[in-house]
Amino acid sequence: MTQTFLGMPASAPDEQPHTGGWRTNVAVPQDTLRWGHTFPEGAHKTLANTQMRRNLGHATRTIRNKRQMRVDEMPDWEDLRNAAEAVKFEVASRLPELLEQFEANVTANGGIVHWARDAAEANQIVADIIKSKGVDDVVKIKSMATQETNLNEYLADEGITAHETDLAEMIVQLADDMPSHIVVPAIHRNRSEVRGIFLDRMGDAPENLSDNPQELTAAARAHLRRKFLHAKVAVSGTNMGVAETGTVSIFESEGNGRMCLTLPDTLITLMGIEKLVPRFQDVEIFTQLLPRSATGERMNPYTSMWTGVTPGDGPQEFHLILMDNGRTKVLTDPIGRQALACIRCGSCMNICPVYQHTGGHAYGSVYPGPIGSILTPQLTQGLDDDDPVHTLPFASSLCGACGEVCPVKIDIPTILIHLRARSVDVKRRLVPDMWDVAMNATTPIMSNGKAWLAATEGVKATRLIGHDGRIGALPFPASLWTRSRDLPIAPKESLRHWWKRTHPDGVTPARPATDAVDAAQPAATEENR
Q1: Residue of 270, 285, 229, 223 lying closest to 118 (CA atoms)
Q2: Percent residues over pLDDT 70 in the chain
Q3: pTM score, two decimals?
């Protein structure tokens, strides 16, 4: 594991520190899908970082509002979502066939295709290609696939420096930090912190650099331009590949991707096997959904597509690495496989109240937020009780907002519940904990109508100790619940008592069909107005 500085950056005794309050709070883990802590442990730490929470709240609200503006101007938004869902369902249903077609078309157009079973194999292939070119310095486009494999750390151990060229990724890399969002990796930083990072770590940042965003981006541009002009090899991910043509694509906002895709002699693209669409025509759907969902833009400023190698134009050697790394295991789950439809827009994270308060680092994975809560446990198959990943499906209030905003209609809440059930099923084979004992003790009461009725009568006693309709604190073991949420007091009248009072015969009287039509007519008339 890489040793990462956890305190304030050092400065000479007579030197004015430029930190802007930034500090690195996480170490770069060896396994980027498993950082080692559970979600409750991570959340306990990040909730104490009030500056991070302010940064995150401001950023997510801004992106959320921009997204809503762009969605509201689309009369066919739901039709696009339905079309995207259908395309992704087709991909999952025909994946082996589409992958073979994709490989054949990439190869026919001069590309070289490699297959990687896991992260280690993918990293090894990338390193071998770079070494074969005799270079030890490469430029990189923002890529969740390379984050998933921890490629930068692997290359560093092999004596190769990978320079992140996306502005947010560069900020994270300079700070020896970890990303906290799949679209905006440095969303937990404000501009004062970015200024401090640049002054402390960039090396060639202007001494009089302010925290003005234009100055910060200008400093980053000048710093990166030299990297672009001298790089012989570039590494990228991809937003989607087209099986029909062998085309690969990058959607980005800064132009750094375009520089990486055109200037170097060799381009290496790492792609998860699920990032396919069957036909070139399908791209049109996602070019409307992705930018609006991710950054609130009508279209990406830079959309780059390349098909193999074109003599005299762009890289003259193109390597495509198709990586599994747990994806075929996800495909075997008829419910959980929906997670593979994700287009990495981040809209579920921007609307999630849990993510907005805890931040991405709490999830202990490069895939945070609601999508990370369903994707990471499946990629790792980490649902055992002693695996920190098993806590992720429980990192949700199940409010359903994530499913409502997903542009490809992934039913995230249902998958969360499904994975919780899988985790509980695994847990049954282990030594029971206090929650298991409690549930087993209450099962006889919950499964018997008379016993449950007697128990609910006893619950009315909570009205004597509640305040303003709720109970804020109870002694152990009930404190395990009330330390993080209030407990509502019992209502004056239970459902059973209400039913008995309003339906003394225990039967709802039949309503004539004509009465039902007459009662519905005013509502229909009002709706038509």
Answers
A1: 270
A2: 91
A3: 0.85
